[in-house]
Amino acid sequence: MADKAAPLPASSGGLMRFFEDETKGFKLDPRLVVSIPIGLIAVSWIIDTLFAP
Prior knowledge:
The structure is a single chain. Helix content is 51%, strand content 0%. It is elongated and about 55 Å long. It has helices at 15-20, 30-50. It starts with 14 loop residues before the first helix and ends with a helix.
């Protein structure tokens, strides 16, 4: 079974080094990045429902 399995290609090609580099700038929690747009969508739906003509 192990003979038929193809080895994984070595295709990281610098991607590991890219993601390991530390960059300057804002560091945001991913939960915050997801929750802000969801919150804005919810607020816009509430405003649209309450103030719809």
